[in-house]
Amino acid sequence: MGHRILAPLGVAALSSCLTLPTLALEARVEGLTGAPEDNVSNYLEGLDATQYSRSRLEGEVRRRTGEALRVYGYYEPDIVLEFVGEKPDSVNVTIDPGPRVKISALDIQVRGEAENDSAFRDVLDAFPLAEGDPLRHAPYDRLRNQLSSLSLERGYFDSIFLERRMEVRPWKQSARLYLILDSGDRYRFGEIDYHGSQIDEARLRQMLPFSPGEPYLAAQLAEYNQRLSQSEWFSSIAIRPRLREEETLALSSSPSHWWEQVERQGSVPSPSVQPTGPVIDATALNSALSLRGRRSLDVPLDVNLVPADRHQFETGIGYATDVGPRLRFSWHRPWLNSAGHSLNHDLFLAAPDQRLTGEYIMPLEDPLRDSYRLQYGFRQRDNEDTQSMEASVELARRWQFDNDWVQSLYLRSTFEDFTQADESAQVFLLYPGISWSRIRTRNPRFPTWGDRQRLAFEYSNRAWGSDANFFRTTLDSQWIRMLGSNTRFVGRIGLGAISTEDFDKIPPSLRFFAGGDRSVRGYSYESLAPRDEEGDLLGGQQLFTTSLEVQRRVTGDWWGAAFVDVGDAFNDWWPSELNTGAGLGVRWISPVGPIRFDIAHPFDDEEKSWRIHFAIGPEF
């Protein structure tokens, strides 16, 4: 019995001994400063003295030190080593670097068609070394890699280095650098073959950022990949330039959701933007080099597509002090037919507000930027002194411009049965409108930079059947900026105005209210507005709110916040007083999005000294 116990214990003890971490030789470097000193330290880091005899250890330290110095042009250093301890655990390295090799001849050229390519000229112009400069290996090696990468990315698949050598003469303290690239001819985009698509080929070709016959550019393949992903028509996308039947320069398959690939900037990147990461697979170089002697300079493309699921469902549960618990259910059909039409439905349920909305999208010539949209919905509200039932239909023409702004021209019809305070009415409104909006963010889950703007104008007149005349305008803007990596600023402003002689016919959905989590904290949801003689809310004809919040990282994903909110809804511009709330909060960047907890003090509410605000979800 005793042996059975001791045997496992012995094995465990032996295993623990075998897994003890090795102790690296500690090196102290003297006689150097700056980058050469750091490089020597890096070369000696992690050296295990127990793996060498004393003489071999000394040789290894000298070898590594010499290698570290040569890349900075020191080829004849005087190195003195002093080991500490019988079994050395540290070494003092005293270095006299000696004379530094300088560049006596420099011949850097690009020949062939790439000689007049601006991308290659920019790389050569940025090369930091010149004749007479101290030798550094890194810029030369980096330039060689840059020229090789550019050749593949820009379609010079026959490129070859005619000269690629570095001649160093330490006894003369001189070096000669030669790097001559012959790019050969530039290849062009060839014909495009689509496989597996359920969308009309003509529609897919409308999204191309290039045309067959144009010079090859890998960045444009990446852009096309991104455009197809943004359409949400496909679950998998693979674009493969066909260099040989058995090998390709391939963009790997991508998921259908474009936000999984790039930071949302509000638009598709310009074709002139070079990708920051590799866009060519591991077989690219061999495939490219095999092309020498090909007669045709055309590169055909194979676009392999897998349709996205026709029905996609999503549910979400949340909580906010404005509306309490909330439930959201969405049904998304990313494609209905070969023209790429799509359909979205969204159900939102909360105690004071229930909404069912739908949107039918008909893409036009530029599917990602131009479309017709038919929107419809039903909404029921029961909050404070507001009760309403609303049904609406809207037909919109939408454009997205190159500067990221989205313009929408729409015609909206609304029927609303409402009671506001002691006013009750059933109204039908038919009114055109136009809006401009833009959203830009970096790191959408918790933006470190971003802004959102929306400006809208709407007009209604009895002449075409509306029950009220009005002109309404709204402006919302919000900014997020960082100072360093631990301080974050969030600013917001909201303006609204409605001009009408029929305010009693204006439904609650078009009147203005302030207060709540996303308005003026310290006050309850939509509790700030003009009131009647009995103190019931009527809603206002004007709105002004503004907020400034400063957030500071406490540790990891935890942030503290301090904020001031000011605003009100009113009838006479400008109000004599504005309501103010201020307080402190905590932010936690959870896996499901930011969670915000605030305690705010309302300076203009005598009945309540503070209010808690809690919400889940991003600012935008």
What does this entry look like structurally?
The protein is α+β, with helices and mostly antiparallel strands and 620 residues long. It folds into four domains: 26-96, Roll (Ubiquitin-like (UB roll)), CATH 3.10.20.310; 102-182, Roll (Ubiquitin-like (UB roll)), CATH 3.10.20; 188-242 and 302-306, Ubiquitin-like (UB roll), CATH 3.10.20.310; 312-616, membrane protein fhac: a member of the omp85/tpsb transporter family (Porin, Beta Barrel). Helices cover 15% and strands 44% of the residues. The chain contains eight helices and 26 strands. It has a 16-stranded antiparallel β-sheet with strand order 11-12-13-14-15-16-17-18-19-20-21-22-23-24-25-26, with no helix packed on it. A hairpin with a 3-residue loop joins strand 20 and strand 21 (487-499). Helix 2 runs antiparallel to helix 3 (54-70) and helix 4 (118-125) runs antiparallel to helix 5. The longest helix has 17 residues, at 2-18. It is extended and about 100 Å long. The N and C termini lie far apart (68 Å). The model is unreliable at 1-21 and 255-285 (pLDDT under 50). Keywords: Cell outer membrane, Membrane, Signal, Transmembrane, Transmembrane beta strand. Residues 326-620 form the Bacterial surface antigen (D15) domain.
